[in-house]
Amino acid sequence: MHLFRSSLVMLLLLTLITGLAYPLLVTGLANLIFPWQANGSLVYQENKLIGSELIGQQFTRNDYFKSRPSMTSEMRYNSLASGASQLAPSNPLLLNEITKRIQTWQKVVNNQNTIPVDLVTASGSGLDPHISLKAAYYQSENIAHFRQLTKNEIEQLIKDHTTFPLMSFMGEPVVNVFMLNQALDKLSAEKQQKVSTQ
């Protein structure tokens, strides 16, 4: 009986510490020190939630940079079902899907450069908001055409929104597609405003 009572007290004590006190403490500290990040890095426009810096989105319009493909279940970029397709590289279904993506890119982008691999393959989470610099520059000429901007303006925008790893051996520079497209909208609006005021 004594052993049972001791076990029960220890269970309750550990439940309170690890199941209640610790999560509340960590959540409280995160909200105090990093409030924006702790709440999902959510981005609002005119008091309307338009996305998160941490989760990729599907951009279908030709005048936007495209994200990596997503294979999350039920719908693309579903943050409640993060995960990859689980198809092996030799699986005909995966090869067929990649072939379709290559054909789509060849129709959309009018250049002969090799399509960067991250534009035709999904990330492990299916939610990656970043693309490589190669993938961004691959799309730059196309975006410049649809936005009626110069290629140099688009490439400068990419440079301005490039994130470098903390240390060079920890990865390669990337661009957050959602934030890049936000900056693209801002640049287009500024250019149109200049034209209308002239």
UniProtKB/TrEMBL annotation:
Topology in the lipid bilayer: Single-pass membrane protein
UniProt-recorded Gene Ontology molecular function terms: ATP binding; P-type potassium transmembrane transporter activity
Lineage: superkingdom: Bacteria
Gene Ontology cellular component annotations, sorted alphabetically: plasma membrane
InterPro entries from the UniProt entry: KdpC
Compartment annotation: Cell membrane
Main localization, broad class: membrane
Alphabetic keyword roster: ATP-binding, Cell membrane, Ion transport, Membrane, Nucleotide-binding, Potassium, Potassium transport, Transmembrane, Transmembrane helix, Transport
Keyword Transmembrane assigned: yes
Protein family according to the UniProt entry: Belongs to the KdpC family.
Xref: HAMAP family: KdpC
Biological role stated in the UniProt entry: Part of the high-affinity ATP-driven potassium transport (or Kdp) system, which catalyzes the hydrolysis of ATP coupled with the electrogenic transport of potassium into the cytoplasm. This subunit acts as a catalytic chaperone that increases the ATP-binding affinity of the ATP-hydrolyzing subunit KdpB by the formation of a transient KdpB/KdpC/ATP ternary complex.
Record note on quaternary structure: The system is composed of three essential subunits: KdpA, KdpB and KdpC.
Protein name stated in the entry: Potassium-transporting ATPase KdpC subunit
Organism: Proteus vulgaris
Upper lineage: Bacteria, Pseudomonadati, Pseudomonadota, Gammaproteobacteria, Enterobacterales
Designated gene of the protein: kdpC
